[in-house]
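[job 0412] stage=fold_complex status=start
inputs:
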Amino acid sequence: MKLIALVVALGLAGTASAQTALPPAPYAYTQLDNPALEAKAKALMETIRCLTCQGQSIADSNASMAADLRSDIRERIKAGEAPEHIRAWLIERYGDWISYKPTAEPITWPLWAAPLLLLGAGAYVVTGRLKGHKGRRA
Amino acid sequence: MIAETGLAMLWLAATLAALQLFLAWVTVARGNDGAARLMHPVALLQGALTAGAFALLITLFLRSDMSVLLVAENSHSMKPFIYKFAGTWGNHEGSLLLWVTVMSVAGTAVALFERGLDRATHFATLGAQAAISLGFYAFLLFASNPFARLNPPAPDGRGLNPLLQDPGLAFHPPTLYLGYVGLSVAFSFAVGALLTRQVNARFARAMRPWVLVAWMFLTLGITAGSYWAYYSLGWGGWWFWDPTENASLMPWLAATALFHSISVLAARDALRAWTIMLSVVAFAMSMIGTFLVRSGILTSVHAFAVDPTRGAFLLALLAIYIGGSLLLFGLRIGTVNEGTRFDPVSREAFLVINNLLLSVILGLVLIGTLYPLLTEMMGVKVSVGPPYFNMIVGPIALILMLLLVIGPLARWRRDHLRSLLRKTIPAIGLALLVLVAVKLIVGARIGVMPLLGLTAAAGVALASIMPLFGRNLRRTPLFTWGMVIAHLGCAVSLAGMASDSAFVTEKLVAARPGTTIDVGGWKVEFRQVMPIAGPNWTAMDATMAVSRNGSEPVLMHPQARFFSNPPTPTTESAQLTAWDGQLYLVLGDELGDGRWQLRLWWKPFVTLIWAGGALIALGGGLALVGRVGRGWLRARARGRIHAEEVLA
Amino acid sequence: MKRPWLLWIPLAAFLVFLTIGSLGLHRDQQQIVRSRMIGKPIPGMDMPAASSSNPAFSTKAFADGKVHLVNIFASWCVPCAAEAPQLAQLQQRGVLIDGIAVRDARPDVDDFLAKFGNPYARIGLDARSVMQFYLGSSGVPESYVVDGKGVIRYQHWGPIMPQDMDDILEQLREAAS
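[job 0412] stage=fold_complex status=done
writing structure:
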């Protein structure tokens, strides 16, 4: 355990060298010329999770893998691929985890049901406090 | 020597807390008056000792005493003075000592200044405060000792995380903790009142100032944290629904609902169960928040101590305190008369709906934050982030805004729907005007939610000042001004959020020095990049001359910094604040061919977000002064100003 | 008191939270994102040569009846150095190891191989992490066992340490059968 911690710490220190000596991918830090396509790409990137970060989207990250993925996404959108198709492609390889936008899978149904349930429960509690409702008690 | 003294003071304070709890039990349950006289001195001494221990820890950091483990792991002799000072709480043990200090000093404050409660409840409250302090003293002394020694002493420290070497560290955690931990007082009040069965209007009036103080600081803390993240992370975002951020938002939502509920309890002697429940929930959210952030069960950019054993300790404290108080609640509140039912069109009814919506948002944020943990138990990894939270919370928040238009204008007890709706016409009218105007000017380029946000902001802004119409402004109570300004702050903040979302322009370019870039009507001339050095860092400093409509160029200096202890690269963005927005510039990496990556944003009216937050806190402050002032005047009129009255 | 059972809902919800919290504390703390390509054919991609000593390779020709161990590494990755002895051992046992160097450059890869040994048959260059995305890989180092029909059978996340050798050999055996 300590060895791995040491190694990872050294690794983090050592990553500065060759990794950043390579230029970033063409569209990692550059926008597409077509504003409509750029908007589509940006909307998608804000919902794709960075693989090497602690809870950020690739749109907000300086990590090199996030930068590479941004460039890949922009190139694909430029080539005409649909954003949802790219998302599905990524989910196929990394699972639901990589998409911040919850999918329609059964595992996320409670997330969609939650607001309705809570609002419903709340309405039930509130109507108990208001006069004239249901006329149950004087 | 200093470290040992500090540790001894903490042990002594913990013992006094145990004594305080015992005295409270003896006074309230056994009716022993002799014990009562000791109560206040014990509480005072406990607070003084803990504050003293905290001061000693600060001293150790300022001296860079490397024989203390905490200093060696988190500080460095070359750090600037302010970060040596603020770095005291930039780590788990130090911030926990800050937590305990605020908690015990808050208890002292209650002992010294609390005048409104009946005697028994006052002592029960002090007892409850001592009881929760004990758990945290135990956590501090047994699992997070800040004064542990390092033998032999380190030659120098590991340094403070560069992202924390920022004025934000001096401001954000202390204000946040005053809020978070200040809510422990509300919790103690609630438990005290449950024990003495004195949940009534007098109790509400007594508790109100304490909740307002905590809430005010929490508002400031969250606002400061958001602004700090905004300018230091370098991508222009100001809220990420990160678990740590949610951990501060949830107590805030509960506390907001709480003092609205208190106003009903104070005015109509109703909503007893809601008020007690919200008091418990508010502090529960503070504790849950600190558990989530320190245990490592959720990944977060902000998480600072990943330690499951400490997490287990916190969970145990949660089980005892929150489980215990919820059990007490279930057993006791049933015997408390709930009060009359409300007319559907009345101020009370709108406040109840307000509480409901705030609680729903709280519940959704909690569920969303914990959901990935739940699914992982079942072997599936999902991510819940801004797309979900924005989609779910946004619409409910808009409904809440709608309520803000109509609620404060409604009369207590019973109002007439037609006359009430007539009063809201100006606000609704203005909102619709803004809706149409924005749509005409901007057309299809604005999303639905930002558009609705601007609309609602306009309506709420007008509606928030309407309670002042037709009144003699000099004789309007201060707490009414407080309400007006706080609600106005909500509208201002919403306007900022909607405007930034709708109208931001972004440019990512790779440019050579000497080029000019256009963004959002500004001309940004990229002049040069020079290496410079600071106290504990080196950087590439870019000089950008910005101007708009031919104005005199202003120089901005975004930097790409490299800190030495610990070795970390950071980006220091540069901002220029104009009356109608903020220019945000970031210097990225140098590409091999002499070009530099630049990120530029023009964010119209984005500063309104935090200006609104400050207004909300100001409103709270005015309400606080107003209430305390009125309470003081009333007490004086009844000749109850002398302290002995409480102990007699 | 009307609807007294309502009063117990908060306690019940809190108990649910306690359960989730304690279960969360006991699970493995590491957040590993595993590839979902296990059981699927390896994506076909041509890659240029990453070093002067080893030829380039293409994953398109992987359905050749032989079991491959695809090792994703980089010269700037320190844990990759830690697994070099284990990879050398595997090569001596006859395992066919193909390397993919991520975000790297020839001189750096050559230096790395000179310093830590060269167990690779072929090494491809993945300059922009694209092959990593295709494979569902989330970092370096990682190793994939691919069977004779070109189907990915197993993913080993992180460096191959001595205690992992048995598992890897077992997976390679199973892929061969």
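[job 0412] summary: The first strand of chain B starts at residue 505 and ends at 511.
[job 0412] exit 0
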